[in-house]
Write a structure and sequence with these properties.
Low-confidence stretches: none
Shape: elongated
Largest sheet: 2 strands, antiparallel
Strand order of the largest sheet: 1-2
Number of domains: 2
Number of helices: 8
Order of helices and strands: HHHHHHHEEH
Number of strands: 2
């Protein structure tokens, strides 16, 4: 349930972020502008990239803190007695950070977090590179999904074409073929 709530919150934040950017940039829904184009027009990152950047910066700050500080003690705290809730444990900040470092296509080894974050300048540059890599893969994934949706492309195949049965006109999307066939009625 926790993962579902986090994903839902991130999606809602991303929707709100893009809606605000569209209003600021004066982009109307009639313009049929994709989210990727809106982000490129405004020269800003998506909400997920901004959240990852903030999380990585805070993690580096935590690692460099003195051991007597409460945030660092909580970050490295382990459950000594008792049990976690059944049905899948609730993720802690450290677990979510490891997942984001490893699984979000950022390319940072979570086992080397302590040693990498001790040098602030190298950690900042490594985080910037990781976020840039994440943004590139996210944009590529979104464009690939859009192409698959728009052109009905199956994974591993190329963009399809749909000929009209009546006049042999070639349409590049299924919905375009459907709209074109309505003109023959």
């Amino acid at each position: 349930m926790c993962v579902c709530v986090c994903v839902c919150v991130c999606v809602k934040l991303d929707q709100f972020h893009l809606r605000c950017l569209r209003k600021i940039a004066g982009i109307k829904w009639q313009d049929r502008t994709t989210n990727v184009e809106v982000l490129q027009t405004c020269k800003i990152s998506g909400m997920e990239a901004l959240l990852l950047q903030a999380q990585f910066r805070w993690a580096g700050h935590l690692v460099r803190m003195p051991d007597n500080r409460i945030p660092k003690q909580i970050f490295y705290w382990q459950l000594e007695s008792g049990m976690r809730l059944p049905g899948g444990p609730v993720r802690r900040y450290k677990g979510t950070l490891k997942i984001n470092l490893k699984l979000k296509r950022c390319g940072i080894n979570p086992n080397l977090l302590n040693s990498a974050a001790m040098n602030r300048s190298s950690w900042r540059s490594e985080c910037h590179q990781a976020i840039d890599k994440f943004k590139e893969t996210r944009v590529a994934t979104l464009e690939r999904k859009r192409a698959a949706r728009k052109y009905d492309v199956q994974p591993g195949s190329h963009v399809g074409v749909w000929p009209c049965d009546s006049c042999s006109r070639i349409c590049t999307s299924r919905i375009g073929l459907y709209a074109h066939q309505r003109t023959h009625r």
